[in-house]
Amino acid sequence: IMAILVFSGILKQSLLVELLIGVSPFFIFMISSSYMIGLLNAIDKYEFGAISPGIRAVINLVVIFLLFDKIGVWSIILGYIIGELFKNIYLLFIIFKHKIFYFSWKTQKNYSNYIFLFLKTMIFQNISLMIVGLKPVFDRFIGTFLAVGSVSLIEYSTKITDIPNTLISGSILVIFLTDWSKKIHHHDNADLKKDFKKYTAFILGLTGLIGLILYFFVPLIVEMIYPKLEAKLVISNLASIFLMSFPLYMLVNFYAKILVAAGLTKFIMYLAVIQQILHIIFNIILVYYFDIYGIAYASLLHAIASAIIFIFVINRKVIAVKEA
Question: pLDDT exceeding 70 applies to what percent of the chain?
Answer without folding.
Answer: 79
